[in-house]
Amino acid sequence: MTVAETHCPYCALQCAMRLAPEASGRLAASPREFPTNGGGMCQKGWTSAELLDSPERITVPLRRDGGRFVEVGWDEALDEIAVRVRALQEAEGADAVAVFGGGGLTNEKAYALGKFTRTVLGTRYIDYNGRFCMSSAAAAGNRAFGLDRGLPFPLTDLGDAEAVLLLGSNIADTMPPAVQHLGGARDRGGLVVVDPRRSATAALCDDGAGIHLAPVPGTDLVLLLGLTHVVLAERLADVDYLAARTQGFEDVRRSVAAWWPERVASVTGIDEATLRRVARRLAAAAPHRGGRGAYVLTGRGAEQHRDGTDTVTAAINLALCLGLPGRDRSGYGCLTGQGNGQGGREHGQKSDQLPGYRMLADPAAREHVAGVWGVDPASLPEPGVPAVELLRRLGTPEGPKALFVHGSNLVVSAPDARAVTDRLRALDLLVVCDFVASETAALADFVLPTTQWAEEEGTMTSLEGRVIRRRAAVAAPAGVRSELEIMAALGARLGARVALPTDPREVFDELRRASAGGKADYAGISYDRLDAGEALYWPCPDDTHPGTPRMFTDSFATPDGRARMVAVTPVGPEDDVRDDAPVYLVTGRVLQHYQSGAQTRRVDRLNSSMPAAYVELHPYLAARLGIEGVESVRITSSRGSMVAQARISADIRPDTVFAPFHFSGLGRVNSVTNAATDPISGMPEFKVCAVVVEADDTGVIDTATAREVVA
Ligand SMILES: Nc1nc2c(c(=O)[nH]1)N[C@H]1C(S)=C(S)[C@@H](COP(=O)(O)OP(=O)(O)OC[C@H]3O[C@@H](n4cnc5c(=O)[nH]c(N)nc54)[C@H](O)[C@@H]3O)O[C@H]1N2
Ligand SMILES: Nc1nc2c(c(=O)[nH]1)N[C@H]1C(S)=C(S)[C@@H](COP(=O)(O)OP(=O)(O)OC[C@H]3O[C@@H](n4cnc5c(=O)[nH]c(N)nc54)[C@H](O)[C@@H]3O)O[C@H]1N2
Ligand code: SF4
Ligand SMILES: [Mo]
């Protein structure tokens, strides 16, 4: 055990932490000074080391034997997996096998997983949970700016701005230390939070610090069209910037013309005066009007919709009308979610992508990457399909019969999770690589135990596009292998024709070559430079390049250097409220738990403070439904139901209920959510669907903890 300067294993803020042995001999995490977290950490970070020596840790490979798992040796597990993969591929072709990755994997693992899939397995079926997370913002960023870096500026820049418009982001719970960067906007009364709930973040607008808008769920796009309409109608736009730095403005102008405030109010529920006030507040902060600067930022609340890409596009259009992107103390950004949500979307886990944010369908990209890998470009598979479609095909006559899962707990986190569970059960072979027995691992034929963050070296790319080092503080338990070792060992058994190095530094050096010349160019970023303390943001094309903290200052990454404004039209939810499903369900997160809860439900201090799911509903709704005072409610959609404790609160719209998605069993909200997807990004409609809410008279509230799930 040594002292290590590393970063938190959880979210994209990647708070800097020090891991050091305590007097008890256990490792403990404490925050370090770093720009994004400013010496802060949330309770998930503080307790993160508890999972390292948890009794629930898997340290031996497991093989299913009927209804239970038996412990097996690594050779036995890997030999049998390889034999079964080969047999499936010989019978049905390379696409008989699929891979599902995760945005929590280091850059090295994400890169290696993409390479392993395209060269050793040769299948086109790979995608990852970032599809559920960043895909709408990524698609909109690529379309508008020619490039997708969540925040194209350091997070600390926000602190100097005068106004910040936060659409569907609850950073007070999802990245608590980041709240400090909203201080400037709050001091100047310029924080605007858009959320159908008065979330912890919306509450930051109190006392004159800003404005909380609580629109009808799924209407952010209309709201944004309305704000843009007001900006143009009141001549608040930056016309010089629009002329010099954008194209497509006329289309956008025409498209927002019909969204006058009264019409916007009838859809969103936000009245005309408030809409105008927000538009004017943002415009007053814009550089061309002499303001200190303004930001438009989106989170999952605005993005996880069937029209998520177009919603983000509308947010970008508004930012462009105000002349924000690429200007001082101003811009548009998306708040990336997972620990390596940014890097994980750059190095080839996406169905259509090669490392360096190159595209698999581009012949020059195939040629370059195949050259680095030492294979024939023609041998690389064609693009596959996005996550939801991949999951739908599993175990069908035409679809993949085997799946490798690296870094996702689909049984809890995927939309319409009951259907997903059925697809996983229909597989001939499910291999899950994890360090805990997640609900998904519980369905596997093989569970391969892997190292945790504090046992690994590697790199992560934070929400600002800054590459940082993950460092090992402790040796992994005997019997556990790193993912790089697992892929190499499987590769050897499957006759790999490429090198599959197991040293993270070696993998990173190869990633640098593979990304060189690509949009996400890491060629100049090295472990040595990072270890010397350099702050390196991609693109960083060579060893002497200082990296790029701020992008788009002179031009955008489009062929003509101008941002592309695209006119968008609202389509609304696929599963909209109606007589027999009259209430909106919105989903999201709580402070204590991370994602599917696979990790945080196993940390005692977190689990005891939030042991089970709940459903938040307004007292008016409870009264209307005649369910005041009931203990538990059942929420039902055309996919399924959940049952959880009722929490009556005036902080939510009376037409809407909220549930967190971190829980399994009866408390699993994804039994209810809709798997309809955005046609551009493949993002599912996690953030809105239509439900029936009723008292649950079974008297069962599921408080199944992680432990019970394992047992
Ligand atoms: N505690 C905690 N922190 C996390 C995570 C976690 O699981 N737990 N996960 C990390 C990851 S991967 C991600 S992606 C980020 C997510 O970070 P956020 O985007 O901040 O998180 P969410 O809670 O999913 O959604 C934000 C808000 O959207 C609101 N919302 C729901 N529907 C709508 C809508 O139609 N319009 C608008 N405007 N808002 C709506 C919800 O009420 C919620 O308060 O958090 C990261 N940090
Ligand atoms: N209803 C609803 N559903 C949602 C969302 C929502 O807002 N509402 N949000 C969506 C979003 S934004 C996201 S990001 C997804 C996330 O949901 P998931 O993809 O399920 O993410 P995690 O729970 O983080 O699962 C990661 C799993 O991998 C394991 N793990 C962690 N690190 C590693 C590693 O390095 N290697 C390996 N092999 N395993 C590792 C963990 O133990 C855990 O079991 O959920 C989505 N689902
Ligand atoms: S979960 Fe996110 S906000 Fe909390 S300590 Fe970790 S990196 Fe920081
Ligand atoms: Mo996410």
Automatic annotation (TrEMBL):
In the record, what terms sit under GO molecular function? 4 iron, 4 sulfur cluster binding; metal ion binding; molybdopterin cofactor binding; NADH dehydrogenase activity
Q: Which Pfam families match?
A: Molybdop_Fe4S4, Molybdopterin, Molydop_binding
**Per the UniProt record, which residue ranges are transmembrane?**
none
SMART domains the record matches: Molybdop_Fe4S4 (SM00926)
Q: Where is the 4Fe-4S Mo/W bis-MGD-type domain?
A: 1-56
Name the GO cellular-component terms: membrane
What UniProt keywords are attached to this protein's entry? 4Fe-4S, Iron, Iron-sulfur, Metal-binding
UniProt xrefs under CDD domains: MopB_CT_Fdh-Nap-like
Q: Which GO terms describe its biological process?
A: respiratory electron transport chain
**Name recorded for this polypeptide:** Assimilatory nitrate reductase catalytic subunit
Q: Which organism is it from?
A: Mumia flava
